[in-house]
Amino acid sequence: MPELPEVETVKNILEPLVKGKKIAEIDVYFPRLVLTPLSEFKSKLIGATITGLSRYGKFLFIHFDNSFVIISHLRMEGKYRFTKEYNPIRASSACFKFNDDTYLFYDDTRKFGIMYLTDEEHYLQEKMIAKLGPEANKIQDSDLPLLYKKFNKKKPMKALLLDQEILCGIGNIYADEILYATKINPLTLGNELSHSQIDEIAKNAKIILSRAIELGGSTIHSFHPSEGVDGKFQAVLMCYGKEGEICPNCGTTFHKIYVGGRGTTFCPNCQINKHYEKAIGITGPIGSGKSQVLNHLKDKGYLTISCDEEIHELYKDPIHKNKISRILKTDFDIDDERKRKIARLIMIEKPDKKKEVEKYIYPVLEEKLIKYITDNELVAIEVPLLFKAHFEFLFKKIFVLSLNKEKQVQNLENRGDSLEISLKLNSDYHYDKSNKKVILIENNRSLNDLFEQIDKNLN
Ligand SMILES: [Zn+2]
User: Structurally, how many domains does the chain consist of?
Assistant: First the structure.
């Protein structure tokens, strides 16, 4: 989706091409594009000459010599295309023909873009424009008191940065970049920030957006500023879209979460959320005594969460159930023993299917865990695949249980699980020895010995 720098780039590329051109005809192929009655839109613009283009936030304005103004919003995938011949494409929603036989097409594959007609006197007072906050690349010191007030909400900062009525022009890419530069976790609530942190956000928003404008915006996915022109800002993106890559600042792997449904990349080490700094993670191979440790912590007053149980609950939700059925190409039902066994066998035989299931369910699970951690004081979570799911960032300490093979087989036999299947499903268990949060706990002796080690390390 084009953000402020991209729309600025569109404006800069388009203006010299169309300034001074007189409209001879207008074709609208997709009537919903134009919010003004079509006959009025045409009658007021045919014969008028374009005097210039301007922009506020992500809105583009086309000014005419008869004082009319088109307000245009490209939304997801709208693009302008200036040509010397009449060549509409499938995505074309409208075409402005000029009296020198040149054309300006508006193409929009997703058809979310809009256009409407107003005039010089009123365009900045139009409801959609007037409610917008100051432009993020032009924040003044005098805007700060209002920002302190508007950010003072119990909402994640990622969501507040996307709120165009607080600051306008910031979309998903630049919100991630601004938070990374300011070392603020995307889930930190607005009302947890100090004034000096908001000052920093404002400063970084200005720097990042100005630099993006200089570089012509980012060419990502659907956005191309113009045919044959690539934005260059993606080359200097520090964080956005870098899930799985290494943070240049600290060497930690960038992590992706969903905040209000928007994919969000951040560095779990540089952008710490204070809520995460208290939870305890428990992991270890199958049969290593994780549930016993969890029960022990429950007795000590912790809210205890078992991820296996959480996932079991998630799989009951018809949305997730259907999705897993589609991935595994079988009628998946966690409460039906036979169907559950079939699903397990598919995942053992087809590791890529297992991966796909995990890739789908881990972010959903993560959102649930984050909620437990932020809403409660003492939380302990048993996560069998903690390192595989990259959940390290959620915890203050991670107890990694280990045991010898003999003891593991003995434990599994006591549980009556199928030894072979259990071990196969768990064959991808691993942990990160170098992680500073890891506390290794050996569970080859008695329960008492196990709990003693836990208690010693809790303090
Ligand atoms: Zn980092």
Answer: 3
